Amino acid sequence: MISRRRFIESSAALTAVSVTPLSKLLAGENEGYSNKSIRNILPRRLQKGDTIGLVTPGGPITEEQLKNTASKLKEFGFKTYYLPSVLSQYGYFAGTDTERADELMHMFANDKVDAILCVRGGYGAIRILDMLDYELIKQHPKALIGYSDITALLSVIFERTGLVTFHGPVGVSSFNNFTMEAFENVLMKSQGKYKYSYEREAETEENPEYDLYAISEGKAEGILIGGNLSVLDSMIGSKFEPDFENKIVYLEETDEKIYRIDKMLFHLLYATNLKKAAGIALGIFNGCDYNEEEPSLTLKQAITDLLKPLGIPVVYGLPFGHISSKITLPTGVKARLNAGKKTLKLLDKAVS
After folding, report:
1. N or C terminus of the chain with fewer C-beta within 10 Å?
2. Would residue 26 count as lying in a domain?
3. Annotated catalytic residue within 85, 148, 155, 234
């Protein structure tokens, strides 16, 4: 069993860093914020031997999940560090909102932590957005990695600070060869351009959810932003609503009925500026091609009906989302989408 008092996997070398008490952070201090004039901040590239801080800003984890995460990262040459709160639980959250926000801020403030990896998603990240010190994050930039519910943190931190964040594996993900190839190319190699490779998930040949196809052909360039569809939908109308204009918007979802996908996508199209996106890159909508009610559209019909009329490049089936083999997408980096060829390419480096 893992001791909750153990702060670092191999030693107690990391010192605790005090952060601004959350009670001093004003809930409305970022009202009216605009990122139009903010310059992108690239986190330092990861290297073997670096220390990765493990956090749980959403749902709770088990000691076994924590142990397995630390073990996997050790195999790849990383050290791990975490606070006792990583194993906290408060209902369906990994601790109270204050615990989860303090944990994340501690990792940003601690200069001996080189990057931050979320152990899992699970609902909760959106509830701490108003409790984060974005100026402190800006002054202590480092890679934040996760997906699904972590979408809220990835998009808002980029919008408010300019810090490039990473939609990639969480600690409980499968770090297979395909996943690690993209992870290393994006986070560990400071290169100007990178074309993502494609790999279809094993044993999915008969499942149309994993098909790769163009909805609207064409090419587009823009800054990457996006994430989980339902999380982005829940941010509409708030001061955290993302700006999609002229962006390459990437979207994924899991375990939602077709009509729910239709409903959330429609909401994004008509309640935000998603229609002004440069292009849309859809990942795998795992477990979403079903409806209990009949008759029904297929998932492909529903998303095609909504997105094809936009007249912008749209492709479905790129390898990201709630799947085993996934690419790492840097929010805030310029990319080129070629829907006709069904490819996505980074045009700038994501790390310094």
Report:
1. N
2. no
3. 148
Q: Determine, yes or no, domain membership for 25.
A: no
Active site residue 71: no
User: Among 252, 253, 256, 325, which one carries the catalytic annotation?
Assistant: 252
Residue 153 belongs to domain spanning: 39-173
Same domain, yes or no, for 320 and 276?
A: yes
Counting the structural domains of the chain, the total is: 2
Same domain, 224 and 321: yes
Active site residue 23: no
Say if CB 348 and CB 333 are below 8 A apart.
yes
Residues 164 and 205 in one domain: no
Q: What is the rounded distance in angstroms from the CA atom of residue 41 to the CA atom of residue 281?
A: 24
The token pair at 298 is 């297929």
Residue 180 lies in a domain: no
Sign of CA dihedral 146, 261, 230, 340: positive
pLDDT of residue 21: 39
Q: Which of 106, 140, 167, 322 is catalytic?
A: 322
Between helices 299-307 and 258-271, what is the axis angle to 10°? 10
**184 closest CA partner among 319, 273, 176:** 176
For 159, list phi and psi in degrees, rounded to 5: -60, -35
What's the pLDDT tens digit per position in 150-176? Answer: 999 999 999 999 999 999 999 999 999
pLDDT higher than threshold 70 for residue 247: yes
* Domain stop point among 143, 173, 203: 173
Averaged pLDDT for residues 4-19 = 39
167 part of the active site: no
Evaluate whether residue 28 is within a structural domain.
Answer: no
Q: Whole-prediction pTM value?
A: 0.90
